[in-house]
């Protein structure tokens, strides 16, 4: 395994450190996630905010293992995990001020996982003052991943294979676009206002897993994503992956994405023209 020294707060991740992080995520998935997939009991799944917002023993054990390993590698980093943030939500207010922050979703797509659907992942990102500088979207089932870092592009790696550069799609006409819209996570008044506009697109859907939605976007399999739940561990890695693959990600009001942003609508699309076209359809949401 590649070893690394603690990172200096003013430096980006080195290639060796990126490799160490990826190795840690892969070990965690093999140790704490995959043994429980299709092998967990009812007692291992509990609800957080409701029946579709779940946490399992795999979530908790994976976050603990990742946190231990990351603290050894980066002892001065602010580490914000989804499960720990559920217990201590105020930690999110520190993200935008942190020079080196690691955001973790130890098991993204928990509903899929708990229902024996093989569509879940591990999301890890590094942010500087809230801006993503490194992102990892890992699939434990296939043991492959998409990684991206500022100025170095986005790449997909299949185990020991050669990294493949990624490029988002080129579609710019909404009537031909496929997109992810997290309608069920929006307030009811927003759902009612937004739903009549969905037929303007060729297809809208959700995968119940941000990891795989952003993977699909970065590989050109979908054209846009609109989200209104600003959970930073769900978005930061996917944002840098899409940006490094040629895409555009901004808040619907035109502000740049920052992982410390607590609320708003986040729109990611193939390119500037595609973003503008989708934005034109959804701009009315800013008035609600």
Itemize the secondary structure elements and their pairings.
Blueprint lengths: L14 H19 L11 E6 L2 E4 H17 L4 E4 H6 L13 E8 L1 H5 L6 E8 L2 E9 L4 E6 L4 E5 L5 E2 L12 E4 L6 H7 L8 E3 L4 H9 L5 E4 L4 H13 L3 E4 L14 E4 L2 H11 L6
Parallel strand pairs: 3-4, 10-11, 10-12
Antiparallel strand pairs: 1-2, 4-5, 5-6, 6-7, 7-8, 8-9, 12-14, 13-14
Helix pairs in contact: 1-2, 6-7
Main attributes of the structure:
single chain, 288 residues, alpha+beta, seven-stranded mixed beta sheet, five-stranded mixed beta sheet, 8 helices, 25% strand, globular, disordered N terminus
Question: Describe it for me?
Answer:
With about 290 residues, the protein is of the alpha+beta class. Helix content is about 30%, strand content about 25%. The strands form 3 sheets. The chain has a 7-stranded mixed beta sheet with strand order 3-4-5-6-7-8-9, with helices on both faces. Helix 6 (about 210-220) runs parallel beside helix 7. The longest helix has 19 residues, at about 15-35.
Main beta sheet: 7 strands, mixed
Helix-strand topology string: HEEHEHEHEEEEEEHEHEHEEH
Global Rg? 18 Å
Relative strand content? 15-25%
Helix content: 25-40%
Average pLDDT across residues? 92
Number of strands: 14
**What ranges have pLDDT less than 50 throughout 5 or more consecutive residues?**
1-10
End-to-end C-alpha gap: 52 Å
Write a brief caption for the model.
Helix content is 30%, strand content 25%.
């Amino acid at each position: 395994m590649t070893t690394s020294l603690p990172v200096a707060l003013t430096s980006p991740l080195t290639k060796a450190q990126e490799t160490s992080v990826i190795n840690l995520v892969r070990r965690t998935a093999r140790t704490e996630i995959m043994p429980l997939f299709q092998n967990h009991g009812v007692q291992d799944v509990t609800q957080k905010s409701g029946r579709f917002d779940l946490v399992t023993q795999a979530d908790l054990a994976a976050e603990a293992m990742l946190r231990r390993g990351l603290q050894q590698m980066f002892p001065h980093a602010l580490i914000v995990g989804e499960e720990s943030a559920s217990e201590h939500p105020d930690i999110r207010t520190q993200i935008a001020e942190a020079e080196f922050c690691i955001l973790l979703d130890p098991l993204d797509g928990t509903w899929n996982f708990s229902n024996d659907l093989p569509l879940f992942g591990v999301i890890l990102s590094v942010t500087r003052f809230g801006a993503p500088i490194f992102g990892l979207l890992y699939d434990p089932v296939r043991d492959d991943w998409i990684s991206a870092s500022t100025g170095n592009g986005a790449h997909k790696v299949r185990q020991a294979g050669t990294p493949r550069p990624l490029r988002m799609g080129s579609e710019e006409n909404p009537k031909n676009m496929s997109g992810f819209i997290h309608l069920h996570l929006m307030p009811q008044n927003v759902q009612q206002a937004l739903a009549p506009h969905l037929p303007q697109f060729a297809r809208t859907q959700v995968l119940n897993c941000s990891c795989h939605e952003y993977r699909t976007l970065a590989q050109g399999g979908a054209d846009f994503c609109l989200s209104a739940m600003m959970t930073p561990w769900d978005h930061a890695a996917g944002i840098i992956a899409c940006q490094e693959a040629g895409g555009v990600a901004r808040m619907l009001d035109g502000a740049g994405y920052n992982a410390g942003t607590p609320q708003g609508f986040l729109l990611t699309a193939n390119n500037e023209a595609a973003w503008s076209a989708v934005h034109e359809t959804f701009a009315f949401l800013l008035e609600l």
